Amino acid sequence: MEIERKYLIHKLPDALETYPSHEIEQGYLCTAPVVRIRRQDDEYWLTYKSKGLMVREEYNLPLSREAYEHLRPKTDGILIAKTRYLIPLDKGLTAELDVFHDDYEGLLLAEVEFSTEEEAKSFTPPDWFGEDVTFSSTYHNSTLSRQGR
Questions:
Q1: Is 19 a catalytic residue?
Q2: pTM for the complete prediction?
């Protein structure tokens, strides 16, 4: 189960380059339900996500590089490229800040994952977070892959 809140970011936190990061490329084989392939650095994944906004089922299966390369041209829509920064927050939480590239250059989104729905509902975002878009599917990566700017 994935429980997360998502926010637009209008101003990057200071010293962004000092935080750990990953280079991510992902595409969608299907968006209803969501079936995604992802390359994160040198790891490859096939992911299924159920419907939902703040709470969704999520299953990740490892892929070989060869399997990822085979599936990559079969994706629909835009292949999403982004750098994900892992920024520690209070109470042991982590903001996953996505800085998008290519078709979505300039888009900044942060996600925070939680152990429980209660924890997610009581979360107070840091000052550098912008609008809460948790309950809008507009900013799901699967939706972005179909739209373009």
A1: no
A2: 0.94
Q: Which domain holds residue 43?
A: 2-147
State whether residue 124 is helix, strand or coil.
coil
Q: Into how many domains does the chain fold?
A: 1
pLDDT value at residue 147? 78
Residues of the chain with pLDDT under 50: none
DSSP run (H or E) holding 19: none
Which of 7, 19, 28, 68 is labelled catalytic? 28
Query: Which residues neighbour 48 within 8 Å (Cβ) at sequence distance 6 or greater?
Result: 33, 34, 35, 36, 57, 58, 59
- Please give the span between the terminal C-alpha atoms of the chain, in angstroms, as a whole number: 30
- Using CA atoms, how far apart are residues 23 and 146, in angstroms rounded to an integer? 21
Contacts of residue 10, defined as CB under 8 A and 6 or more positions apart, other chains included, come to 108, 130
Instruction: Please list, residue by residue across 104-136, b when 16 or more beta carbons sit within 10 angstroms of its beta carbon and e when fewer do.
Output: beebbbbbbebeeeeebeebeeeebbeeebbee
User: What proportion of the chain, given as a percentage, has pLDDT over 70?
Assistant: 99
CATH of the domain at 89: 2.40.320.10
Sign of CA dihedral 19, 105, 34, 37: negative
Q: What is the reported pLDDT for 148?
A: 62
